[in-house]
Structure formats: C-alpha cells, structure tokens
Write a structure and sequence with these properties.
By secondary structure, the chain is mainly β. The protein has a domain of 253 residues: Distorted Sandwich (Beta-galactosidase, Chain A, domain 5), CATH 2.70.98. 14% of the residues lie in helices and 38% in strands. It contains twelve helices and 42 strands. Strands 1, 7, 8, 9, 10, 11, 13, 15, 17, 18, 22 and 23 form a twelve-stranded antiparallel β-sheet that branches. Strands 2, 3, 4, 5, 6, 12, 19, 20 and 21 form a nine-stranded antiparallel β-sheet that branches. Strand 35 and strand 36 form a beta hairpin. The radius of gyration is 25 Å and the shape is globular. InterPro entries: Aldolase_TIM, GH, GH-type_carb-bd, GH97_C, GH97_catalytic, GH97_N, Glycosyl_hydrolase_97. Monomer. Keywords: Calcium, Glycosidase, Hydrolase. Its cofactor is Ca(2+).
Length: 650
C-alpha cells in the first residue's frame, strides 16, 4: 500500500474538507455547521447530492450532530492491489483518497466520533468510527440519520418492502424519486438515474456487528433506516467501543456497466482471514427441490436414500458439476424434524438424518466420484447445535450448506450469520445463505461465503411465475451491484408467455433457453445452481455450455448496458472468455465488440436464439467460428431472449 499524506486542506478556515477522486471527477465536500455535519457529492461538477446532514441519536435522546468541533483531518491516498479467492475478478485495485475527520462534542463528555471518507474513481464510501476513549465506553443507538439529498429529480429503481422481516424477494419498481411517498421502506441497493444518464446506487459494505440499512423518505429527504433489534423498543444497535458502522456506499458513473464492474464493496472489507484454502472450491450444484426430486423409472424407491442421491451424484460426475445438494423429499427435510412446512419442530435435530438416509455413505460415494455433497438446513434448527453439527458434517466429509429462512438483518441476525460463516470455515464448509439480506463484500474476508439470495428468483416459477425476462434485466442494475446473487437457474422447459402455467414439479420457464444460458455469465455467483433434473439436460442443446461455464472469474467487463433494457457482460477465466447478453421482453439487435480479447485468434462457440423461438423458445442455433479482437459480432435477441459465447484461445 502506498500512502501519500497531504499536508494541507483547502478552505480550512471555513471548516470545509474536500476529497477528490484520483481521476478528479468525483468530489466529496464536508462542512460542519452548528446544527449538524453536512456533505455533498459532485460528479463532473454536477451536484448529485446536495448538503445532507448527518447525525446519530442514542438512547435517552442523546444526539451526536449539533455543537460539534472539527479536529484536524488526516488525509492519504491509497493505491493497492489484492487478490480475491472467489470473485468477479482475481486481482482488484483499491485506489482512493481518504479523509479521517474527527468530530468532538464541544460540551459535556467531549465524546469523539470520526467520519472516515474514501473517494474512488467510481464512487464514494463513508462510515462512522467510534475510537476507544476514556469518557465513552459503549453506546445504544436508536437512529442513524444519514441523509441523501438527491438533486435533479432522479428516477429510482428499488425494491419496496412492507417491513424489516423479509426474504427480499420482490419485484423492483421504477418511479420518480419525487413520487415515492414518505416513510416507504426501500431496500438497498437502490439505483438512481439522473438527467443525462448519470447513475448513483446506494448500498452498504462490511456489515459486521451492526444493523442492516434501508432507505426511506422523511419530509422529502432520503434517510437511512436501520433494522431494529427484536423486542427491544426500537433499539437498533448496541456496541462497545472501539466500534464502527458499515460503509455507506455510493456507486457513481455515467456508464451503467461501470457500476457492475466496480470493486469498491470488496475493497472496503478486511482481507481474507482464512489461512488454509485448499479445501475451498467454487462451482455448480444440483438442487433437486426445485424440479420436484424427479428421477427416471428406477429399480429403487426414490426418496431419502442412497440410491436417489447416487443417481444425482453420477449425473454430476459425468458432467463436471462440482456438487450435489441433499435437500428434502416429499416435503420433509433430510434430518429429523417434527415441524410443518420445513419450520423446525421442538424435536428437530440437524445431526440426525432420517431413517434410511446414510449421509456418511453418500459423502463417501461423492468423494469416490469427485463430487462434493452439500445439504440444506433451516437456520433455527442449525444454530442451537452449530458446533456439534459442523463437527459432524466435517467428519462425514460434507462440503457445504445452504442455510435458509433467515429473513432478518437486525444486529442479532447479522452476528448470527457472521458466526455461522466463521464456524463453517473452521470445519471446512462453504455457505450459501438463502432467505437472507444482500451481500456486503464479506466474501473477501471469508471466501467460504459463496453466494446469498436476497432476490426474487426462479424458485417462484413453482408458485407465481413472477420471474420474467423483464425482472431478470432489473437486478443486474440493483441487487447484483451488492455482489453474488443466488438463483435457482437452469430450467430447460421454456414456453411461450401464453402457455406458461404454474407447475410445482418440472416448473416452466419464461424467456428463451439462450436467455437462461446467458444468465450464467450475467449473474455473479460463486455457486451456481443447475436446478433441473438430469434427464431434462441430457442431450439437450446448450447443456454443454452449462458444463463449461465457471463460477468465479479473473476479469469482468460490461461492454454494453442500458438499465432495464439489456446488458452484455464478458468474464474471463484463465485464457477463456465467456460472454452473456440478455434482453427484456423487447427483441433487439446488439453489436458486441471483441476488443477485450488479447491479440491472437480464438475459437468462438456461439449460442443464439433460433428463428422460431416465439413458438419454440428452447430452440437455439449453435455456431463455431474463428474470431479475434478486431471482430464485431452482430447478434439478434428475441423477446425475452439471450445470447452466449464461449471463446477459447487457439
């Protein structure tokens, strides 16, 4: 890391602090008024956030905001690179200018709080830090009043929620910010589009020992809202000093794809804390629950038994699929439970498989075939037996878990998730959080967090069919800006819109098969699901692409994107490149410049929507050709369609 200490501050006499991005396009300006600290953000001299007050309200109406004095800020430039074990890039650059701004109460206890600000070329981040001090040892936070006075009446794209108890699985709304009613709870990430196509997304990074942040309008001003601790009369956070909040992150660019490419969120997290990573492997997994546990005509009774698992494990081994997931059968978990609808009963025990299900035998067979075994668990059945269960799973040789139905992001649940993640690493287990809040970059620190849900996904095709191509194109610019996004992808039964119907087994899909192939490149997730059953894939056009596409990447670029309309994402693994393009319900023609390729010739395997996909959406055209970085491809995407390319260096 290179530190360049700045020796002076502009307009110091006015207690104004200005931090400029390395490329000079973004400026964060801080000012201390009598009533509160305020900040503003400009991009290319265009004000995006005007004077916005910052304050904290502690228990007993003890506020931190008015009557403060400004200590001498410390400024530096940071320029470093770091490697990600799993991520959208292998090596990321953390390049920013930072200011640590001390704020001290003028009267009374003279408590000190530091506002730390980092300004990158593609955004801004700031957080509140509570240094250790003799006159302040702990706090109980009732409100964090971080505000965002957005200018120019931007268009908002966000998920609105009725309350804080949520799996975050809903449809995104596009609406003028001015038209959002006061007190409407807005999930993050939320995207705001300003006139002239300047984009600003608000989210958070490094959520540790704190409550998750939402947004709401109060008296017309966009304001942070924290998830409250259960049953504690509105208390949001309890902490012992030293302590710090998560980073409040503003991703900013005049190119929508730059927000997807940004590495700010991982740059704001601590480096990897795991020393032994030899056991950790990203990859793809089955998930039989989605398809209804379909098996072919068999000589065995399908169910909670070795033979059913063996059928899926053999399929994985034959098709380079890294994991098989043991989930449930006939609506019952794989472990003992006397609950209903997967909710743990009083005698639920995640250390006791159902009679007839030998998990040791399944793990041993998976190991023989080179396939890892994972299992689904309900979090509240797992957590009381965390150490006992993880030790047993490690003994069996299990590879990881999907931990489900968490549905909260108050400080208590945030700490539970981080504890699960850390304990899992001790026992060589990866984690997939389901029914959970958005990611905040913790996969840099604990790369055994391979993915998390927090979005409406294809599981809903089993009961609502809400996940359409129009929805698919919304979350690369919203939810996915926070990081890996867990989806029940890989359904191979697309039907025309008028023929879609709800099927709990063998669910149907909207859009085209090429749309589904491209989603494996568009979506960032280090554990991708192939959710359909083996015979749905065998011999099917496009399945070869799914067996080849990686789940973690050396490089990611977004050469073309229009919010809510289409996106093309290119990702590199070694010397291979994969390209995925999806559109909404509008058919369109895209041009893809291959200038991201290094010099030399490449064999391109192209998967395109067939001419008859309006009637037969599973049809595709596959073509092989030689290309180089000077080529420009013109591709046609049908309504709800897609296009996928695998490029191999010759």
């Amino acid at each position: 890391m290179v530190f360049c200490w700045l020796m002076s501050l502009p307009v110091w006499a006015k207690e104004d602090v200005r931090i400029t991005s390395p490329n000079g396009r973004i400026v964060f300006s801080f000012d201390l008024t009598k009533t509160a600290p305020t900040y503003r953000v400009t991009y290319d001299k265009q004000t995006l956030i005007d004077d916005s007050p910052l304050s904290l309200l502690f228990r007993n109406d003890s506020a931190f905001g008015a009557n403060l004095t400004l200590g001498k800020p410390k400024l530096r430039t940071v320029d470093e690179t770091y490697d990600l074990v799993v991520g959208k890039v292998k090596t990321a650059r953390n390049h920013c200018r930072e200011a640590v701004i001390p704020l001290i109460n003028k009267k009374g206890s003279k408590r000190q709080l530091n506002l730390t600000v980092r300004v990158f070329d593609d955004g801004v981040a700031f957080r509140y830090e509570f240094p250790k001090q003799a006159n302040w040892t702990s706090y109980t936070l009732m409100e964090e009043n971080t505000t965002f006075r957005l200018t120019q009446h931007p268009v908002a794209r966000a998920l609105f929620l009725p309350n804080f108890i949520s799996s975050h699985e809903g449809e995104y709304t596009t609406i003028l910010l001015d038209s959002i009613k006061n007190d409407t709870l807005m999930d993050v990430p939320a995207l705001f589009e300003f006139p002239g196509k300047v984009y600003l997304a608000i989210t958070e990074a490094a959520l540790v020992d704190y409550a998750g942040m939402y947004l709401t309008k109060k008296k017309g001003l966009l304001t942070s809202q924290l998830s409250p601790l259960p049953g504690q009369n509105g208390t949001k956070v309890k902490a012992v000093l030293p302590h710090q909040t998560p980073w409040r992150v503003l991703l900013i660019s005049d190119r929508a794809g730059a927000l997807i490419e940004s590495n700010i969120i991982t740059s704001l997290n601590e480096p990897c804390k795991l020393t032994d990573l030899s056991w950790l492997k990203p990859g793809k997994t089955t998930f039989p629950w989605w398809n209804g546990n379909i098996t072919p005509d068999t000589t065995f009774q399908p169910g909670h038994n070795f033979e059913t698992a063996k059928y899926y494990i053999d399929f994985c081994a034959d098709n380079h699929i890294e994991y098989h997931s043991v989930v449930e059968y006939g609506g019952h978990e794989w472990y003992v439970s006397d609950g209903v609808n997967y909710v743990p009963g009083p005698n639920a025990d995640v250390t006791k498989p159902l009679p007839g299900l030998n998990m040791q035998q399944i793990c041993d067979y998976g190991r023989q075939r080179g396939v890892g075994i994972r299992a689904w668990v309900y979090w509240s059945a797992l957590y009381p037996k965390l150490e006992e269960a993880f030790a047993l799973y490690e003994k069996w040789g299990m590879s990881g878990l999907m931990v489900d139905f968490m549905d909260r992001d108050d400080q208590e649940m945030v700490n539970i998730q981080n504890e699960i993640l850390q304990k899992a690493a001790e026992h060589k287990l990866h984690i997939q959080f389901h029914g959970a809040y958005k990611p905040t970059g913790r996969h840099r620190t604990y790369p055994n967090e391979l993915t998390r849900e927090g979005t409406l996904n294809y599981e809903t095709n089993k009961w609502s069919g809400l996940d359409t191509p129009d929805h698919d194109i919304s979350f690369p610019f919203t939810r996915m800006l926070a990081g890996p996004t867990d989806m029940h992808m890989g359904g191979f039964r697309a039907v025309p819109k008028e023929k879609f119907r709800i099927q709990y087994t063998r669910p149907l899909m909207h859009g085209t098969r090429c749309h589904q192939l491209a989603m494996y490149v568009v979506m960032e997730s280090y554990l991708q699901i192939l959710a359909d059953y083996p015979d749905a894939y065998k011999g099917q056009p496009g399945f070869d692409f799914l067996t080849q596409v990686p789940t973690t990447w050396d490089e990611t670029r977004v050469p073309a994107a229009e919010v809510g309309q289409f996106v093309t994402i290119t990702r590199r693994s070694g010397t291979d490149w994969f390209v995925g393009s999806i559109t909404n319900s509008t058919a369109r023609e895209l041009t893809i410049k291959l200038d991201f390729l290094p010099e030399g010739n490449y064999t391109a395997e192209l998967y395109a929507d067939a001419p008859d996909v309006d009637q037969e959406p599973n049809h595709l055209r596959q073509q092989t050709r030689t290309v180089n970085r000077n080529d420009v491809l013109t591709v046609k995407l049908a309504s709800g369609g897609g296009h996928a390319i695998h490029l191999r260096r010759q």
